[in-house]
Amino acid sequence: MSDVTSSDLYAPELLWQDTLPGGFHWSARVRRGTLLRFSTMAAGANLSALLFNAEEKLERLNIPDSLKAQHTAYLTQGHVCYSDMGRVLAAITHDSVGWHDVWCGLSDAALIAERYGEKTYGDARNGMYRNGRDGMLIEMGKWGLCKRDLVTPINFFSKVSVDDQIDNLGKLIWHPEHAAAGAVVELRLEMDCIVILSAAPHPLDSRPEYQPAGIKISAHHALPLKADDPCMNACAENQRGYLNNARYFGEVAPQLLAAVQSSGQNISNSTVTGA
Amino acid sequence: MTTINNTPTRASALQPEQACLNQVCPAGEAWIGQVKKGQIFRIVDLEGNQAVDTLLFNAQNTEERYSLTDTIRRNSALYLGLGSVLYSSEGQPMAQICADTCGRHDTLGGACASESNTVRYALEKRPMHSCRDNYMYALANFPLAQQLGLDVQDIGANINFFMNVPVTADGSLTFADGISAAGKYVEMRAEMDLVILISNCPQLNNPCNAYNPTPIQLLVWDAPDALEDQALSVQSVGAAQHV
């Protein structure tokens, strides 16, 4: 969507880095203004992600609202991740793969056992087979979150598209060679978030062997939001999302958005009917 | 843009006179009901092009609820239609669509909300009535919702029956004119005891209700013998096409 390079968006120094081995899970409270950079250590990676507002965990990633606002059925660079409260939890500031799945959810224990057989801790110590659902629930539990909070995640680095012929119910198409080794996606946190991750296999991963790729995570200070930020300006909807964030933080809306705000008022006088 | 839809449809033999529940949910309001395992539940789009935002819960344990992601991946299909199984968050069949005169229903669009209306349309649209407010009203007022202890955490991604949200092969998504019409209906057989919570969508900002929200009819029948002959096989898991 935009050709801004990632280095324009964050300070050069590294805050920290971490490695998420394939199949493993991870969570952290990540501050607003932090840029998380995820890169794949091998082909065929999948990184499932959920975001919760750390101040009020009932506010969380809402995929339907994210898709509707941005008129898209997948996420990529230039898109933002909306909460159920109309605010921007995070922005996808850089993406080398072009499509991240938001339809298929998580692999679970039954699916992993059916596809690869079982490998327990007793069988393989930390080489045991892990699944996305249990990994996410383990991390969520640490923050007081449970099954009821398990909403639709993003599956970074995975692509599932649809057969758009009109004579079927939208048959899913899995793209097995989607993300090569070294694929990168960057997520700039726009609110303090609990970030929940799992690098377990995507539920449609068709490879016969259990071989989830590891993910390198690095954290950086994002540079202050600029007036021409590509994610904020990708569409009028996103400008309004950032206005909602400014209200939440008790900040004066960025100057560039003043025009949006006033035109919005004009629109409302003429078109809000029957509400 | 009107998308012509070619997916299979099937009328039902069930007659409203034999129904054990027959109610109308007015335009823009919420509804809750129970459907026992084996019973048939029908939603009728009485006047046409009405989005019906629907959530299902296991009546014995509401932590188990309709799951968008399980339903999409286990059916290997992005939309719902005749034969689709509605799966729970535990991967269990909750219901199967056994009659459908509309042909295709949305899984991705979720529910409209005051908050998302501020993003999608204008900050000043916040006062407009929404599905999310209907759900919150139901949680606060409906005795069944209160007996079950439902709260905002239980409001997950919903089905939009009769709503047309075509997705192209390159991943664009639009809210298109409806493919439903007056009197069209969808019917499902409960595979477990269900509680069904509906918002009869009041959205006026896009064509999902043809800019004119209208009433719907909800009917329940006890398990009819006739339907057992028509039982559809549950679709297999993980049959996605590969490129």
- Strand arrangement in the largest pleated sheet of chain B: 1-10-3-8-6-5
Structure annotation, total helices of chain A: 6
- Overall residue-averaged pLDDT value of chain A: 90
What would you report as the Rg of chain A, rounded to the nearest angstrom?
A: 19 Å
Low-confidence stretches of chain B: 233-239
Give a description of the structure.
The complex is a heterodimer of chains A (275) and B (243). Chain A is α+β, with helices and mostly antiparallel strands and 275 residues long. Chain A has helices spanning 63-70, 109-116, 121-124, 132-141, 236-248, 258-271, and strands at residues 10-20, 25-30, 34-40, 47-53, 80-82, 88-95, 154-156, 160-162, 172-174, 184-189, 193-198, 215-222. Chain A has one domain (6-271). Helix content of chain A is 21%, strand content 26%. With 243 residues, chain B is of the alpha+beta class. Chain B has a six-stranded antiparallel beta sheet with strand order 1-10-3-8-6-5. A four-stranded antiparallel beta sheet of chain B has the order 2-9-4-7. Chains A and B meet through helix 1, strand 8, strand 9, helix 5 and helix 6 of A and helix 1, helix 2 and strand 11 of B. Strand 9 of chain A pairs parallel with strand 11 of chain B.
Key phrases:
heterodimer, A: alpha+beta, 12 strands, disordered N terminus, disordered C terminus, B: alpha+beta, six-stranded antiparallel sheet, four-stranded antiparallel sheet, 15% helix, 25% strand
Task: Give the arrangement of secondary structure elements.
The complex is a heterodimer of chains A (275) and B (243).
Chain A: E1 10-20, E2 25-30, E3 34-40, E4 47-53, H1 63-70, E5 80-82, E6 88-95, H2 109-116, H3 121-124, H4 132-141, E7 154-156, E8 160-162, E9 172-174, E10 184-189, E11 193-198, E12 215-222, H5 236-248, H6 258-271
Antiparallel strand pairs in A: 1-12, 2-11, 3-10, 3-12, 4-7, 4-11, 5-6, 6-10, 8-9
Chain B: E1 21-25, E2 30-35, E3 40-45, E4 52-58, H1 68-75, E5 85-87, E6 93-100, H2 114-120, H3 131-141, H4 143-147, E7 159-161, E8 184-190, E9 194-200, E10 216-221, H5 225-229, E11 241-242
Antiparallel strand pairs in B: 1-10, 2-9, 3-8, 3-10, 4-7, 4-9, 5-6, 6-8
